[in-house]
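I'd like us to work through together how a protein chain folds, taking it slowly. To get us started, please write out a protein record for me. Go ahead whenever you are ready, and we will take it from there:
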Amino acid sequence: MRIAVAGENSLILYFGDTTDPRISAQVQHAVGETERLLGEALIDLVPSYASLLVIYNPFLIDHLEVRRRLQELANNSAEGEVTEGTLIKLPVWYSTESGPDLEALAQKAGLSVDEVIALHATTEYRVYAIGFAPGFAYLGQVDERIAAPRLATPRQVVPRGSVAIADRQTAIYPSASPGGWNLIGRCPTRMFDPDSDPCMPVQVGDRVSFEPIDKARYLELGGEL
């Protein structure tokens, strides 16, 4: 584990440089240990694929003491076991109507639309990071047969709930926003709701699986056209 300065009151821990469930497990282990080591001096933690951003209160603890405690974590940490995490099932309306890039992705992959849907829906994904926008969960990894690069020209507006693929990642857009990922369907579940507790249905380390539904069920569950 490598420790680097990230700001006047933050440090970042690096655990590796690849997308790997074991590295993700180490990050998750470090989240709990850092909360224990810093206590009330901790402001926030931001876990990602292979790193952990630690933001602390400089009025309660200084930089050297934070680094010392994190170095203690590094010295005592064993390789994290791959924990199962909570399994979250999310419904998806897969179609060329809800996923305007579905047919083109299938053609490039040399597969039928139904085969693309089956490959995407039968894979279990790990939540590696949440970022870009509140509730935007980066899920991996997509079956390599349906991995696809980002669009050459991003869309100015991607509808909320759009299910998308970029390289070997997949995600659900939590709100309408610009985006360059390949759209293959829509999910009616709100990925971010500030009025709910918790405000997001998934957390880093959780597992996600998708359940295909039809348009009628999508609308019944609150999906928007």
